[in-house]
Amino acid sequence: MVNNWLKFTQAFLFPGICLVCGRNSGSGRDLCHACAGELPRNTSPCRCCALPLPAGPGPGTLCGACQKSAPPYTRVTAPWLYEGHVRTLHHAFKFERKLAAGRLLSELLADTIETAGEARPQLLIPVPLHPSRVRERGFNQAAELARTLSRRLDIPTDPFCMQRHKATAPQSGLNRQQRSRNIRNAFAIQGRLEVAHVALVDDVMTTGMTIEQAAKTLQRCGVGRIDAWVVARRP
What crossing angle do the helices spanning 84-96 and 141-153 adopt, rounded to 10°? Predict the structure, then answer.
């Protein structure tokens, strides 16, 4: 009840400005109800990799690839499709350095995590960028998302335990085979991980090669369960 009262007070005193349409959001969040209703939800995902599936198979369906070969992670949570307002917000966050858009996306992801009823991980690990890419961009978008998720869900995050020691080419524009070769053996763990359940955090998942390679790195370190939390999934 106290949390509800605080949220109401915040919304009254500090009404947000919708980052999509620019109007008063009518809440403490920077997204109005109309634009929130237009977000492209991932309504029928594969229960493992969150790939959008045709409507009809029902909840708990596996895509063909996951049926053929189980990925190194347990489950991907990706509540949105990478299109429409989600794509607009992500572009503003990643390429225009509008961190408010990143905070909004991570809050939307946290909403889904809170209501999912899944076992919570002991640690959040943002998928790392190579240091040269961080210098070029100025920040790691996955680390920014993980920071908000950590505060909201009260789960520690460690942005340094996994390093990207291979300066890979950007994954965008590459096909599945090229992405696989590009990202292979790109990650390493610094020190020891004394946790059994980890969630990798990233912004957008396309073929899943980056998440897969990061998960394999964690598997080699003895992590028993690896989930992935991403804002959006590309078809």
Answer: 110
